[in-house]
Amino acid sequence: MRWSRRFLARGVFWRQFLRWAVLNVPIWIEPAILVFWAFLFTLLWKSGRNAVMRNMKAVKPGSWALINFFRAYRVFCNFAWTIADNVRFREMRMIPDWEFVGIENFEALKEHAGGAVIVTAHMGSYDLGAHLFAETSPRRIVMVRAPEIDPQTRAFEEQQKGRGATPEALRIDFNTKAADLAFELLDAVRSGELVAIQGDRVTPGIATLPATLFGTKTRLPAGPFALAMAARVPIFPLFVVRNGRRRYRLVTGSPITVERRSRDRDADLGRGLEAWIAQVEPVIAESWYQWFHFEPIAEPPA
User: Fold this and answer.
1) Domain segments of the chain: what residues?
2) In 176-287, where does DSSP find H-type helix?
3) Residue whose C-alpha is closest to residue 111's, from 234, 257, 273
4) Which member of 4, 31, 124, 188 lies 3.0 to 4.6 Å from 240 by CB, making a disulfide possible if both were Cys?
């Protein structure tokens, strides 16, 4: 029944409940709530748990299923913490502590005169990282997010994106119409804005490229690399890693250039994708416990 959809794993009830708990429950009880939330989802969300376990087997070859079960639980714990931190930032303006890795690349991104593409992964807090950069950079940043699968959850997240102290320099777009959005992002980059896109997971309707991630054949988004090639701008890998309770680390990788060098456009895009994989794999391998990839990375059989 339709009313029961809100209680499914991706249903809106859990987002609403977690937001209510963060805003109304004493802060010293917060860890217990988040631990319980993560344990409940680890047990009941079979598809999400199994996907994380399969991905952990790729990240950590030869690992045992029982150990990967507890790794999945740790992933869900970190996911709950990041959602709670996002709520506290939006509603209470509670800003976490930050440390920087690759500060020279971060400064190069800030000082880059024209537009640029930021590519990141589903880990840490994408939202907090975008807000941090928007408040420290004079240029506008456009953050592209995949829409939630559940319509009610999608509506809730779109409502939340305008809540609180979202800086004027930050625009959040949901990738619901890939073709239309592509032209908007190209105009944004050419006008000197920054476009942030997640590059480790595909959603229906977007262009993809074949790739190998942790020795597993998969497909990854082509959009960030096609955008950088068309606009002739660099790509900056950037990752937000949760260090602890309201403590985060911003990791900025070396810039990637995607150029048209041959008649084979996909091959040129593939070189950029390989450079991205070379930087994203070590970050995920080190911080696997907050890689929020709840679908198997392995490409489904034809």
Assistant:
1) 2-290
2) 178-190, 223-231, 265-286
3) 234
4) 124
Please answer whether residues 214 and 281 qualify as being in contact, where contact means their C-beta atoms are separated by less than 8 angstroms: yes
Phi/psi-derived region of residue 95, left when phi > 0, alpha when psi is between -120 and 50, beta in every other case: beta
3-state secondary structure of 144: strand
Burial 251-289 (b: 16+ CB within 10 A, else e): bbbebbebeeeeeeeeebbbbbbebbbebbbebbeebbb
**Six-digit token pair at 114?**
């024209």
Sign of CA dihedral 256, 257, 261, 267: positive
Mean pLDDT score, 51-69: 96
Looking at residue 126, its pLDDT comes to 72
| Residue pLDDT, tens place only, 4-33 | 677 666 777 777 887 888 888 888 888 888
* pTM of the full structure: 0.88
